[in-house]
Amino acid sequence: MRRSLETLRTVKAVCPHDCPDTCGMLVRVDPASGRAVELRGDPEHPFTRGFLCQKVHNYLERVYHPDRVLFPQKRIGPKGAGRFTRISWEEAIATIAAKFREIAASPAGPQAILPYSYAGTMGKLMYGSLDRRFFHRLGASLLDRTICATAGAAGCEITLGTRAMVDPEASIHCRYIVNWGSNTAVTNSHFWRIEHEARQRGAKIVTIDPYQSPTAQKSDEWIAIRPGTDAALALGVMHIIFREGWDDQDFLTQHCVGAAALRARVEKEYPPAVVARITGLTCAQIERFARDYACARALFGGPALIRLNYGLQRHGGGAMAVRTIVCLPALTGDWRYPGAGAFLSTSKAYPFDDHFLTRPDLIPPGTRTINMVQLAEALHGELPGPPILALFVYNSNPAAVAPDQSRVLAGLAREDLFTVVHEQFHTDTADFADILLPATTQLEHFDIHGSYGHLYVQANTPAIAPRGEAKPNTEVFRLLARAMDFEPELFDISDEELARGALANAANPSPFHGLTLDAICAGPQRLQVPHAWAPFAAGVFPTPSGKCELYSEREAQAGRDPLPHYIPPHEDPQTQPQLAAQYPLQLLTPPAPPFLNSTFVNIDSLRKAAKERTLEIHPTDAAARGIRTGQMVTVFNARGRFRARAIVAETVRPGVVVSLGLWWRKWTDDGVNCNSTTSTALTDRGGGATFFDNLVDVQPATAS
User: Which end of the chain has fewer CB atoms surrounding its CB within 10 Å, N or C?
Assistant: First the structure.
């Protein structure tokens, strides 16, 4: 019989997943059995207020899943078959250390070893601390972790500087809110609550997206832009703002650089008719959006906010698109108001001492960097430097998430590649491991968390003992460091000491001033910034000029265009007509709401909620191909193909198809997912992935 709540121990925890909300959680533990029996949102969290998404609401199903990896294992079958036998931790660590020493001493050297990790957990200690120290000390190749956010960050930095953000809680005062490439209702649900409360006070909500996402469905207006053309729309809006005299001359004069040059460009190059041809919108749509946005205070009674997200920067001109969009609040003066302006991420608000955590001073001079987007090229020896002879994967599932999936899988299948995977489950990547190590879940280890969607620092206290012989990332790299005879002073440090150092070593005064580990262990602590914070109300942007850089002298000195402009996608029907003649449809692959990238696909309840792979296609495109709703179709290009069930609907604009991801190959009928068609081409700045820059065609599937 389940014990009464009065006898259960309550532990404060934090959702670790790659989501801006970073929810507070409460875990109820039965002291007698040590088992977690209930998990719910923390109602005392000031931002997330006790609500958890569908995925994390079922987190105990993940923790106690019968398929958890609970013991170290070594491969006994062919690579990719997922056949293993149990071994001890001692044997596992000794095997890895011996192989790493062998490779490091070989002519290829330690740079033939590549770590591969990303945001399977966002905790500061598990995402990047002793793991980075270990590989830096080893001299392994560096991994440029670019697969999600770097293009947008680079674009923001050009215009706004290094700490561009708003106070999300203050956005409730905005009266015109634009979800630009952001499915906020699904991917940032607690900010959607703020948007909804703002609407109840009179705000209008607009979503700009080629796909009628759940957010677009719930918005007051959906603007179905053509993929990858967001910068052109922003430039057209600027043209209209300047033409109509809606610009805030005082803000432009006092707090911006380059307004006159920007005005000259958009007046000449981006009139509405030109922008309409690029974006697929009508001139009337562009004019109306520009008026409503620029005149929000007069029309709706308050300032405007643009909520950007990372989907709009996953194409060849992604960084420039973000750089251009975040210029708009300078033209309108919306940066003056709390919660207004443009919001991509709050992560730069947290001054964690990453140098202390990761020790980049240990990196040997001349060590190469490999972009994680180009894993296919790395595994096939197509990048400068030695071949990759060993791969250590943690916090990631590259067999599912990396682009050009077929070549990634072929690389992982190399018999001469020694692969270690530290995981909670037998993922697609784990199936290729030579050594598979059991990883803890969030309920089983300590960590500290910032956020990229709010301003609260939190600590995750372990609620239960690690299941089986699972170990957290930090402990794995302590064991490996000892086996490699690395300096004890680098690795014999507890997780709590790492956390204190990450907080205490920040520059002072800082947003961490006065915050202690003990305080955040007791509950979420807001950064030391004022409520209703408007960081750029008086200008003072963290740029070289101290102003919002509509014109960037740094870009000019680097030989690049210093003004915002439109860069089309690599695979754009308008600029690549020969390619589009073969593959005329632009494929977008946003995450299915029950999944988070490739996380949660193996959780039965969530996979059942996702049902199956689908492809949403406009009736015009479906009719031209003889496709009906419910029919199985093949989506293909020169890189690969995958199967999905067609949904014929006007949820996408003509020329666009959408397949929600990201399925594991073992849960598909053809052994691949949508990344079989995606490219390893990079964004214009930031080296980001171009998952949404992908021309394909679709045909009815042949019977298998």
Answer: N
Is the pLDDT assigned to residue 164 strictly greater than 80?
Answer: no
CA–CA separation, 193 and 49 (whole Å): 11
What single-letter amino acid sits at 547? K
| Cα–Cα distance for residue pair 313/185, rounded to 1 Å | 19
Give the pLDDT confidence score for residue 704 in this predicted structure: 47
Nearest to 324 by CA among 237, 441, 216: 237
Mean pLDDT rounded to a whole number for the chain: 96
Give the span between the Cα atoms of 411 and 377, in whole angstroms. Answer: 9
Token code pair at residue 282 = 């009508």
The amino acid that residue 357 corresponds to is: L
Q: What per-residue confidence (pLDDT) applies to 461?
A: 97
Number of Cβ within a 10 Å radius of residue 515 = 18
Q: Is 695 helix (H, G, I), strand (E, B) or coil?
A: strand
Q: Of 201, 190, 197, which Cα lies nearest the Cα of 49?
A: 190
Q: Is 52 exposed, middle or buried (0-12, 13-18, 19+ CB in 10 A)?
A: buried
In one-letter notation, the amino acid at residue 248 is D
Dihedral pair phi/psi, residue 209, rounded to 5°: -165, 135
pLDDT at 504 over 90: no
CATH T-level topology, domain 73-148+350-526: Rossmann fold (3.40.50)
Instruction: Give the domain ranges of the chain.
Output: 5-63, 73-148+350-526, 151-344+534-557, 577-700
| Rounded Cα distance, 525 and 516, in Å | 9
How far apart (Å, rounded) are the C-alpha atoms in residues 655 and 276? 16
CATH of domain 5-63: 3.30.200.210
Q: Evaluate whether 676 touches 630 at the Cβ level (below 8 Å).
A: no
pLDDT at residue 165, as a whole number: 79
* pLDDT tens, position by position, 409-442: 999 999 999 999 999 999 999 999 999 999 999 9
Residue 581: how many other CB atoms lie within 10 Å: 9
Helix/strand/coil for 26 = strand
Query: How many contiguous H segments (helices) and E segments (strands) does the chain have?
Result: 29, 27
The residue with tokens 């009337």 is 284
Phi, psi of 35 (to 5 degrees): -100, 135
Share of the chain above pLDDT 70, in %: 98
Residue whose tokens read 């006070």 = 201
Sheet architecture: strand order including 525-526: 447-449, 456-460, 525-526
Q: Do domains 5-63 and 577-700 have the same CATH topology?
A: no
Give the separation between CA 504 and CA 356, rounded to whole angstroms: 10
Q: Tell me the two tokens of residue 500.
A: 């204190």
Does position 295 have pLDDT exceeding 80, yes or no? yes
Q: Domain spanning 577-700 has what CATH number? A: 2.40.40.20
Rounded CA separation 82/427 (Å): 9
CA dist., res. 652 & res. 224, Å (int):
8
Mean pLDDT to the nearest integer, 87-91: 98
CATH topology of domain 151-344+534-557: Dimethylsulfoxide Reductase; domain 2 (3.40.228)
First to last CA, the chain: 49
Determine the Cα–Cα distance for residues 292 and 310; give it in Å rounded to an integer.
24
- Which helix (H) or strand (E) segment holds residue 31: the answer is none
Tokens of 688: 């980001």
Contact 118, 284 (CB under 8 A): no
Sign of the CA dihedral 188, 189, 194, 200? positive
Alpha helix positions (H), 8-76: 54-57, 59-63
